[in-house]
């Protein structure tokens, strides 16, 4: 055999061994510097609120700062693409909701593959959404609101936290199921969404509970229904959408942490283990309970399975409703 070929082959073997050793070492001492956590929406919304709670606990456990970077725009697409393009070393993470998986289903142009282009690290939990209206809307129930909207075409409008989000999809589904012609106005997050509903610029919104609950408690928004299959203990008098003309309806917003594709297994498993520990901390569990947020511990494989199952279920609903958006 040609000695030059043997020499070249040995160099490749040694290079590969060195690369593996370097990768293993970097995984073993992870993390050794601050971690950037991208939240693809404006500060103060549901995703941002829960993300900051989780990041605060994780940085205590990991011994390194977790720097929150809010990157709103294009319904979360800008922040997600930011992480997709980042180095897969565990120092750039994405905290997002189920809209991370749903967005590519509704955008007309190619964006990213929710399964192949990211590493699913772990689910954080889930939360119902609330159908809420401005206090000047003369409706105390979902039935009354539907009657008003049908009797006054074009008068009542929805605000959504972003196109392709769980908020947007639920509003589209309500429009179609209940025969409404309500325009959907898009915002760059839950804070501007709910601010405009409170201010009367838009009539109503369907938005995750962590962001809506403080305004409901303060009497600034009126809740008409929740999107869970059963009533919420903190709002026992608010019926479900299933009780309000949409039998069998349930749509929850679940939150999780992702990394770029090909994140090393050792780093993925370390982060997943730390997420599991964080979700058991009593102080964090108490904060979640105040928001009606249900923590859910999962392995990376279980989180990947959840994403795949939801893509199939929501993908079917999106196709049947003909929901397509273009930026």
Features of this protein?
11 helices, 6-stranded mixed sheet, alpha/beta, single chain, 327 residues, 5-stranded mixed sheet, globular
Question: What do you see in this structure?
Answer:
With 327 residues, this protein is α/β, with parallel strands linked by helices. 44% of the residues lie in helices and 19% in strands. It is built from 11 helices and 11 strands. A 6-stranded mixed beta sheet has the order 2-1-3-10-4-11, sandwiched between helices. The protein has a 5-stranded mixed beta sheet with strand order 7-6-8-5-9. The N and C termini lie far apart (59 Å). The model is unreliable at 12-25 (pLDDT under 50).
Could you provide a short overview of the structure?
The protein is an alpha/beta fold and 327 residues long. The protein has helices spanning 3-28, 46-62, 77-84, 99-106, 142-151, 166-178, 190-198, 209-217, 265-278, 282-290, 300-321; strands at 35-39, 66-70, 92-97, 118-127, 129-134, 157-160, 183-186, 204-208, 221-226, 253-260, 294-295.
Draw up the topology in text.
Blueprint: H1 3-28, E1 35-39, H2 46-62, E2 66-70, H3 77-84, E3 92-97, H4 99-106, E4 118-127, E5 129-134, H5 142-151, E6 157-160, H6 166-178, E7 183-186, H7 190-198, E8 204-208, H8 209-217, E9 221-226, E10 253-260, H9 265-278, H10 282-290, E11 294-295, H11 300-321
Parallel strand pairs: 1-2, 1-3, 6-7, 6-8
Antiparallel strand pairs: 3-10, 4-10, 4-11, 5-8, 5-9
